Amino acid sequence: MNIKKHIPNTITLLNLFAGLCALIHAFNGSYREAFSLVCLGIFFDFWDGFFARIWKVQSPIGLQLDSLADMVTSGVVPGLVMYKMLGDIQENQAQYNLTEETYYMGVVPYLGFLITLASCYRLGKFNVDTRQTDSFIGLPTPANALLIMSIPMIQFQYSDVDAIFDTLSNPYVLVGITALSAYLLNAEIPLFSLKVKSFSWEKYKMQVVFLVLSLILLVMFEFIAIPIIILLYVILSVVNNTILKKA
């Protein structure tokens, strides 16, 4: 019995379990715990593929399990968090309370699930798109999940900064972020992959530089660094693609 071939799938299932636990905390409005569990799930998501590659035990079922786990951890959870945030705004801010005249605005929180739908479509495309073996087309679902999950964390971190807190407590801003998220997930933008397949500075120097910059930003700015890092990821990818085309 080859134990090694079962280890990556076991790690994938740990990703799924972390996502399920995150769902429970998101339902209860415990966003900090949900954020931590999503980060844990993304951690497992990195290592399942890493071990599958170095041990050469990739399999079709592993690919499907990976996408199914990501669908929960990086698709359903951020969609639910956005739904809850929009619902909290309608409930707790008088100017957005539902009335008999504005009953139709009750659908607004459900727009948060556009993130889940776009994530599902993106994962489905990834499984059949042969262009995405060494890079990504569109924002990966884990990166998008971190972007969405960082919003309530930034609200907590900057609760005493009215400009930031009020902006992220505005339903129009959150719906705009939702729409941007859904677009970036499926945009035809080539982005470099952070999944290392070999130890080569020449091949992965872009990834190393990005990870070092990300770590510095996280230490300096904490949660608000996450959207900055996602923006940096997209910009570096576009610059890298431009350089490669000219070479």
TrEMBL record:
TM region(s), chain numbering: 12-28, 103-124, 136-158, 170-187, 208-236
Keywords: Membrane, Transferase, Transmembrane, Transmembrane helix
Gene Ontology molecular function: any one: phosphotransferase activity, for other substituted phosphate groups
Pfam families listed in its UniProt record: CDP-OH_P_transf
UniProt key word Transmembrane helix: yes
Keyword Transferase found: yes
InterPro entries: CDP-OH_P_trans (IPR000462), CDP-OH_PTrfase_TM_dom (IPR043130), CDP_ALCOHOL_P_TRANSF_CS (IPR048254)
Any Gene Ontology biological process: phospholipid biosynthetic process
Protein name in UniProt: CDP-diacylglycerol---serine O-phosphatidyltransferase
Organism from which the protein derives: Flavobacterium urocaniciphilum
